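Table 4 source record.
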Amino acid sequence: FLEEHKESKWNFSSGIRISNIGNFKIVSFEGAVPNMAEVKTFKDDMIRKVNTGMIFIAIDFSKVASVTSDFIGALLAIRRVVDMKDGWFVFIGVHDELYGIFDTVGLTKMISHYPDLKAFETALKGKDIISGIA
C-alpha cells in the first residue's frame, strides 16, 4: 500500500524535503523554519499544489525547534485551502512547546497529529488517518 519514499528538495536555505507516502506529500523541515520570503514562497507553492490536486499533506516538525507567526499564518492559509478541497492536512512530530503554540491559535483542533513518521505510516496502513493520535 505504501509506495517507496520519493524525495525532492526545495531550494530553501532552511532545507525542506518533500517525500511521498501513499497519497500524502510529506513535507519535512530539516532545521529552522523558512525566513519570511521563504514562508511566502512555501505557502504559495503549497496552495498551488493543493489547487492542482495535491490535497493530502503531512508536515513533519520533528526537527523544528520553533516557528514564526508568518509560518503559522501560512499553515492556517494552507489548511483552509486543503479543507475547501476535501483533503487532509496532518502534522507529525510536534513537540510539546510547539504543540502549545499551535493549540493557542487553534491548529490542534483542526489537524490530525502523529508523534512520529512511523505512527503516521502505521495509521495509513490501517487507513485511520482522520482521528490521528494526540
